[in-house]
From TrEMBL:
<keyword id="KW-0809">Transit peptide</keyword>
<dbReference type="GO" id="GO:0006353">
    <property type="term" value="P:DNA-templated transcription termination"/>
</dbReference>
<protein>
    <submittedName>
        <fullName>Uncharacterized protein</fullName>
    </submittedName>
</protein>
<keyword id="KW-0804">Transcription</keyword>
<comment type="similarity">
    <text>Belongs to the mTERF family.</text>
</comment>
<dbReference type="GO" id="GO:0003676">
    <property type="term" value="F:nucleic acid binding"/>
</dbReference>
<keyword id="KW-0805">Transcription regulation</keyword>
<dbReference type="Pfam" id="PF02536">
    <property type="entry name" value="mTERF"/>
</dbReference>
<dbReference type="GO" id="GO:0009507">
    <property type="term" value="C:chloroplast"/>
</dbReference>
<keyword id="KW-0806">Transcription termination</keyword>
<dbReference type="InterPro" id="IPR003690">
    <property type="entry name" value="MTERF"/>
</dbReference>
<dbReference type="GO" id="GO:0042646">
    <property type="term" value="C:plastid nucleoid"/>
</dbReference>
<dbReference type="GO" id="GO:0071472">
    <property type="term" value="P:cellular response to salt stress"/>
</dbReference>
<dbReference type="InterPro" id="IPR038538">
    <property type="entry name" value="MTERF_sf"/>
</dbReference>
Length: 279
């Protein structure tokens, strides 16, 4: 339970009453002082419990009461956006600026508005997207997030509000980075429209390395397997399979038996089904 409201009430009780002279404010009341200190320590323990303050912080390095109040205010703001206490350790670790002394909720409010209004994410979906990629909160909405969303939609990607790790990171990827994959596909014989369809059907392609994934697989397909890239246009999921553990072993297994089948049948079947069928 948050304790900052209790803390504030104690601070208010220390304020001078209009019915008392100035001398009353200088009198030290041990009981009142103890209550304030207890409240401060409870707030401190709470913030340590939810992972915002390092539990191993030594007493002389603990934040000031003012900083504690600021952190509690941030916690309340994030809770109002749907986050719960188990979420805070991840947020604090991956997005420490949220819990800095200079953080202002106004800095990230546009991101939540973008997720709700532009992406179409619910409160729960927005939280999940942020937890999967806290870097979203540090991105500029106008110059980064909106252009990326527009570009992804232009390629045909849908349901970007679904809180998957892939969607979260796609939304936080700059357009220039996304364009690299489309331009690569065009360079090996795909039209722009075909490249867009491949990306829409296999959005994970944006996370694949061109030199260590896409190019070697295409070269193996054309040179070793003697297949056409037209097959990849029909079955872009080809890029999602391991070259060394799935594609090459199954190709050579079929080649040894002088068998040739469609790319999707070669790769989609489980090992048991595939090797039982082609003994």
């Amino acid at each position: 339970m948050l304790l900052h409201s209790y803390n504030i009430s104690i601070i208010c009780s220390l304020s001078p009453s209009p019915n008392h002279g100035s001398q009353s404010t200088s009198i030290k009341n041990p009981h009142t002082y103890l209550k304030f200190r207890t409240s401060h320590m409870q707030n401190l323990r709470y913030l340590k419990t939810i992972g915002i303050i390092n539990p191993e912080t030594t007493p002389h390095k603990n934040p000031s009461p003012e900083t504690i109040a600021h952190l509690l205010s941030t916690v309340n703001f994030l809770k109002s956006r749907g986050f719960s206490e188990p979420d805070f350790p991840r947020l604090a670790f991956l997005c420490p600026m949220l819990f800095s002394a200079t953080f202002d909720p106004a800095q990230v409010e546009p991101v939540f508005e973008f997720l709700y209004s532009d992406v179409g994410a619910s409160l729960e979906e927005s939280c999940s997207l942020v937890l999967r990629c806290p870097g979203l909160l540090e991105s500029n909405v106008e110059f980064c997030l909106v252009p990326t969303l527009v570009y992804l939609k232009s390629l045909g990607l849908e349901k970007l509000n679904l809180p998957t790790t892939l969607n979260a990171h796609l939304l936080n990827t700059r357009v220039e980075k996304l364009e690299e994959k489309v331009m690569f596909l065009q360079s090996v014989g795909f039209s722009y429209e075909e490249s867009a369809r491949v990306c829409a059907r296999l959005p994970a392609i944006f996370g694949y390395s061109i030199e260590h994934n896409l190019r070697p697989k295409l070269e193996f397909l054309v040179r070793e397997m003697e297949r056409s890239i037209e097959e990849v246009k029909d079955f872009p999921q080809y890029f999602g399979f391991s070259l060394s553990r799935r594609i090459a072993p199954r190709h050579f297994h079929l080649k040894d038996r002088n068998v040739k089948i469609k790319l999707n049948r070669m790769l989609l079947w489980s090992d048991n089904r595939f090797y039982a069928k082609y003994k």
